[in-house]
Structures are given as C-alpha cells and as structure tokens.
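Bench notes, afternoon.
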Amino acid sequence: MVMTSRAERVSAAFVKLTGTLVADYDVLDLLHALVEASVDLLDATAAGLLIADPHGDLQVLASTSEESQLVEILQLQAGEGPCVECYQTGTPVVLEDIASLEGQWPDFQAAALSQGFRSVQAVPMRVHGKTIGAMGLFGRNPGALTREDSAIGQALADVATISILQERTIRESALVNEQLQQALNTRVLIEQAKGVIAYRSRVDMEDAFRRLRSFARSNNQSLRETASQVINRELRL
C-alpha cells in the first residue's frame, strides 16, 4: 500500500473542496467532506458543524460521530457554548481543558465531558466578514491545536464557506437559502434512514451512516435519494 504524506493529504482535501467551485454539488456532502478532512488532517478526535439556516437559526448539519453531534445539539438547545459564541463573534474559540470551565457554559461542559471530550476549538465559517456557521474540533485530551493545525482548519473552513456562498455572486441569494434549506430537510431524512438501518441490521448509528453514504457514493446517488429509498423500503442496507 502506498503511503501518502500529510502534505499530499492536505492538498487532496483542498482539491476536493475547491472542486465544488466549478461544478454542481451537494451542500451536505460538501460539509461532511469538510468535517471528515478536518479530523483526518488535524489533531482532533471528532468534529461537528453548525450552519445558520435561511432564518439565521443555527442547525447541526454535519458531524463525524454521534458523540460530537450530540454535543453540538445540546449547545443549540442551551443557546450557548464555544461554537455558538464562535458563530456570533466570527472569531475562533479555544478551550484547552473543558473540565476547568468555572461556571461558563455548564450545559455544554456537562455534555462534552459525558461524551469523553476534554478540549475543543471552534472555527468560524466565514468569508469577507460574513459568518454562516462554526465548526467544532473536539479532542479526547486537554490541549490546543498547534498553530499549523489551526491555520489548516481555518483554511478548510474558509474554502467550504466560499463554496456555499459562491452562488451569491452569480445568482439570486434565494438559491443559496434554498440549498441550505434542502440540506436541512435532507438531514432529517438521513437521521430517519440511519435509524431504519440500525434497527434492521442491528448496527450502531455511525455504522448505519457509513453504509448509507457508501451506497450513495458507489451508485452515484445523492444522500437524500438514498435515504428516501431506505425509508420507503425500496432499499435495504
């Protein structure tokens, strides 16, 4: 097996994300590619992504694990946390030791520690002063990302943000809102399909999602189409 260097993997990640700038793309698949690349390339155990919907309300649209997804959801329910603050301020938020928080964001602290996370760095999804969300990079151990990892993580987030907002330079902004709304609707279908697969095949939710996404990619289908087939009992994974 040919081993690739970190520099080659970083380059490949940027090529994959920038490829969306010149072709039609699935917003949700782009966001999953972002969080997966971030965990693969950076010193992070898991990642979760919050994106503002057309009404400005944050929603969880991508994650690399059920644990990080749960923490992000609980942040939204509490209305506070590092990723929420990162979105509101448009600046990174670094927590080197979640356990050392003293009274700040108690709901987030309890949720993160219960899922085994001890550190987090929130990276803004922004470009030219416009912030559309935040990505949380979670670690199992205390500590901060290196300067190099932080720079790569921000660059990946910036490219993904440009890919989402690029339509605003050539079409009505309503199209971008429509794409984001469609991604939100697709997320609901995916969660339902994951549950169906997990129940039928007696696997956990992460394995269920891997099966769903693998089938979609292998058969050149969108995640939405594949999830609908599973829910409608047209497909069994």
